[in-house]
Amino acid sequence: MIITSLLEIYQNCNVFNDGAFFGMTDKQTKENQTLFLEHGQPLLFGENHDKGIVLDGLKPKVVSMDEYSKEDLWIHDETDQAKAGLLSRFFDNDLPRPFGVLYCEQRECYEDALHNQIDKSIELKGEGNLDDLLSGNNSWTVD
Q1: SS3 state of residue 69
Q2: Alpha-carbon torsion 90, 101, 36, 59, what sign?
Q3: H helices then E strands: how many in the chain?
Q4: Is 41:35 a contact under the CB 8 Å cutoff?
Q5: Three-class secondary structure of residue 81 per DSSP
Q6: Among 39, 29, 126, 28, which residue's Cα sits nearest to residue 77?
Q7: pTM to 2 decimals?
Q8: Which residues on neighbouring strands pair with residue 31, listed in sequence order?
Q9: What would the pLDDT profile of 14-62 be if each residue is shown by its tens digit?
Q10: Which of 15, 44, 125, 132 is the most buried (most CB within 10 A)?
Q11: How would you class 54 by CB atoms within 10 Å of its CB: exposed for 0-12, middle for 13-18, buried for 19 or more?
């Protein structure tokens, strides 16, 4: 199995974009602007986990935990590709920046799939012979 990961690294550039990530790194604002994802857990953030994310149809919305319970919140499922797409667009509006695993899928790698296909063909049609295949009925003569 091959594991592929895409990472986004936030690094300050003193010349072109100084302080671009200040809101996500400063102790005063970090808790209100970052959302740490955990599979199977509600999307909570804020200084005292006093804010959460709910889905209004397919639109994420920040809510106060004074008005909602944890059961009402969006529960993170890293196997849900549609919700991962929504999380990847949290850079707009007043939504916090998500950190963690947005989406995870287990699939066999190319080499394993190829060997499985060969094994299945041998099982169905038997062991082949390359010489017989090359000198079979479907040949032609070039003049």
Answers
A1: coil
A2: positive
A3: 5, 5
A4: no
A5: helix
A6: 39
A7: 0.71
A8: none
A9: 888 888 888 888 888 899 999 999 999 999 999 999 999 999 998 999 9
A10: 44
A11: middle
